[in-house]
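Format notes (please read before filing issues)

Several people have asked whether sequences and structure tokens are stored in separate files. They are not. Every record keeps both together, in the order shown below: the sequence lines, then the token lines. Line labels are part of the format and must not be stripped during preprocessing.
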Amino acid sequence: MQMTFKFSIVTVLSCTILSACTLLKAGDSSIQLKPAASTLLNQCDQLSKFNYPHTAITSARMVASGGLTNAGQPVSEHCLVSGQMNRRISSIDGETYAIGFEMRLPIDWRGRFLYQANGGTDGFIVTADGGASLGSGGVLRNGLQLGFAVISSDAGHNASQNPLFGRDPQARLDYGYQAIGSLTPMAKALIKAAYGKEPDRSYIAGTSNGGRQALVAASRYPEHYDGILANAPGIYMPRASVANLSHVKRWDSVASTRVVNGLPDYESSLPMAERQLIASAILERCDALDGMVDGLVQDTEACRSAFNLNRDIPTCKANRDGTCLSAEQKNVINAVYAPVKLPNGEQFYPGFPYDPGIAHPGWGEWKFRNSVRTARNPVSVGFIFSTPPSSDLTLAKDTSRAALFALNFNFEIEMPKIFATDNVYKESGMSFMSPPNATQLDRLRQRGGKIIVVHGTADPIFSIDDTAAWYRGLDVHHGGQANRFARFFPIPGMGHSRGGPATDQFDALSALVDWVEYGKAPDQIFATVRGTGNPGGLNPDIPSNWPSHRSRPLCPYPLVARYQSGDKELAASYACVR
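Then the structure lines:
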């Protein structure tokens, strides 16, 4: 039986702009939370005297309208509060640590709190406007513009301590989850001091590591949050990083250029011209599976059997020239896309689906350069996720040493370290980085909380197959009814967090608010490209023949956006069906 959901004028007008939604089905036993209520800011400068345990406010001042802008529009006047929590000196490395934060409080507050979970290895207090956390490319209205009180933090260490903060056990825990646990009640108390009441509704949103943090909050702190928004979540980030490093030797075996500027050039293993060759072949086999040839592969599942790298890409008979792949390359690519397995055959980390987004520059950034030139994967595994952390401090200072660590990475020796503990590091990397019992979110569900997860099908570092497996496990645990409180939206063509040949501009936060506070479950999320003239900024990965007004519905897994009738460039011409 085919399940179909389409836009209607009534539905669109009844929901927040840019979200598509319907009322929860009759008989749903979920608690319906009440909508938040607006109020005005009572004070700002006086918040410098805010008193909370282990907290020091360093400044509190008003920021004039236009002091921040987003998508070419001024952000309204608001209060900016900066401070620190839990300042201490480490007995391990002698460094001074603290959880640095800033909060931005709008004058006209809508009664909502947003924890802005940040990406990467953190260490930066990015502007607390709720934009960077939303995961959409070029977000047109950020959380501050939507009337949220927003907090951003460095997760317990500063940039100069990256990645060596991983030697300090408490800094590890703060980065993994405890900064959220410390900051959240403090932020709500500060909001009460500013407005005369705590937030009516609380949300956490983030992308990449921030998406992981959002799901950690769903698991560890469900009593603190009503809505969870996670983009490209590294649910089991240490596994993903180890899996990525396990492929470096494979890429090295087919690299055509060994060294560039003193470092290995693994991107020569599969340069852009060859990735474009693969993308074209994927489109040839899979583009029409959704009923429309448009440069997007909506039916990722059907594409798994429709596309075959060995069959559909010519094998070079002589030198590589961008029109073929060598037999050795094909073996390597197939291995990289396949699940990583333990010696006993058990799956360690899922594989990746073939997607035309392989041709966008960010794919190479994560598959190649972050293992060598930026050294992000080697130092994360070496210092933050492993027990004990590496004793070779040069890994953090010398990219050539990090590149050597990646090339010589021994999976069977290094992999167990992310599960290990000792007398100093009493939680393993997998423990402090992962949401415990990630598929068992009964406490959040029972109190009416909701989750939206979005993930690009072309993400090269955190596999969308891992997120899909998490959602299936969630559905099994919750009796086949996970969609009553959690929905997962794959984004065709999108790379890690944003970009790629994709409709990557959308407003999932408003869709989440509609669901949490008004019971309007998102059966689609309206998404657009970021073409020429887009106020949120151009996505350079958009093919030149895509019109700048292209829109598509993002469909909840496992439904697929299939063409029905009408203008092929408009979301209303597509339906989310099996």
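For reference, the curators noted about this record: The mean pLDDT is 93. The chain is about 30% helix and 20% strand.
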